[in-house]
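Kindly go through the entry underneath: sequence plus fold tokens. Please state briefly how this chain folds according to its tokens.
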Amino acid sequence: MIEIYPDYLHALLAGDQDQCRRMVRTLIENGIPVHTLYTDYFQRSLYQVGELWEGNRISVADEHLATAITESLMPETYPVLFGADHIGRSAVVSCVANEYHQIGGKMVADTFEMHGWNSYFLGANTPVADLLALVAAKKPDVVALSLTVFFGLGHLLDAISALGEAFPALPVWVGGQAFRWGAHEQVSALPNAALLGSLAELETRIAAWEAPHAG
């Protein structure tokens, strides 16, 4: 597999959407797995962009532009992603109230699709009441919640608690960049909640969940 990450990151920081798209298409044409593209290019580069912003080396506008470009590139994977045979499982994926960073959640939703699940992605800033209503309507096998900004932890814990009260047997899988700051115990202490540290862990959990629920 060709290694063009440094050039990709340079183009992303320069705001060169066309060049980023050309490189992503080249990677896909050369057979890069979707999860590798998401983890080793999209996620890795956005983490680096965030670190540059935190260090005052780029502006908020630069960070927002990089995020917007990345989100615009994700549909390039869809011919591969949605070509998977569906297995009759489903997941509701959402960001919690006051969480406006949705790209991590979108990667999670796409990962479910890659494994043949139907994913219902609610996007950013989803109120608890709307999340509960959608879960009641779709009756998913799993709910996955994404949190990028640590200050939204209270909203996340509220959403997990509400899901637990309304749907006591429903697994809730949680992840996101916010958890590099901690709070692992607070999530894990809640019934049916599991904290996942990466997309690779999500794929492992999907495979482990499917085995006893097959058939």
Notes: The domain at 5-80 is CATH 1.10.1240.10 (Methyltransferase, Methionine Synthase (B12-binding Domains); Chain A, domain 1).
